[in-house]
Design a protein that fits this description.
The chain has helices at residues 2-17, 20-29, 33-39, 43-62, 68-79, 85-98, 112-131; strands at residues 101-104, 107-110. By secondary structure, the chain is mainly alpha-helical. It folds into two domains: 1-40, no CATH class; 42-136, Arc Repressor Mutant, subunit A. A two-stranded antiparallel ribbon has the order 1-2. The model has no long low-confidence stretch (mean pLDDT 84).
């Protein structure tokens, strides 16, 4: 338990300092940190999660890489989030640099790490929706 607290503290320090290399190293060495990140994310992280989810949804529906138009459309339809193509493109470039997605055939596909973010976000959304449905 002590070790996890120390790792979380190191991770929080790396995030505060903007030390991406240290963040990536800690997440690679401690995969459970992804759950910690998912639970403690901010609005920027929420957009990252939504875009990963939109790419994953469109990738599954199309059985092909998701274009920026596909992602913008999925965000609007599936998540009721309106973002411009320029906003989505900026976040996608950041996601590509961080290894969550990769450009392929004029679109984007999720990496393993991006797939994990997508699945965690969609599972959390589904459980929240199911929890709000009244039982008969």
């Amino acid at each position: 338990m002590w070790k996890k607290r120390r790792i979380k503290k190191d991770f929080d320090t790396a995030v505060a300092e903007g030390n991406d290399a240290k963040i990536e190293q800690l997440v690679k060495e401690n995969p459970w940190l992804q759950d910690y990140v998912d639970e403690n994310g901010d609005d920027t992280d929420l957009n990252v999660k939504r875009i990963c989810a939109a790419i994953g949804i469109m990738e599954d529906e199309l059985n092909a890489p998701a274009t920026l138009d596909d992602v913008v459309s999925s965000l609007a339809q599936d998540f009721k989030v309106n973002m411009s193509q320029a906003q989505v493109e900026g976040i996608c470039l950041d996601l590509e640099n961080k290894g969550y997605i990769k450009a392929q055939d004029a679109g984007y596909v999720l990496t393993v790490e991006g797939g994990r973010v997508c699945d965690n976000y969609l599972n959390k959304q589904a459980s929240e929706m199911l929890g709000s449905i009244p039982s008969e």
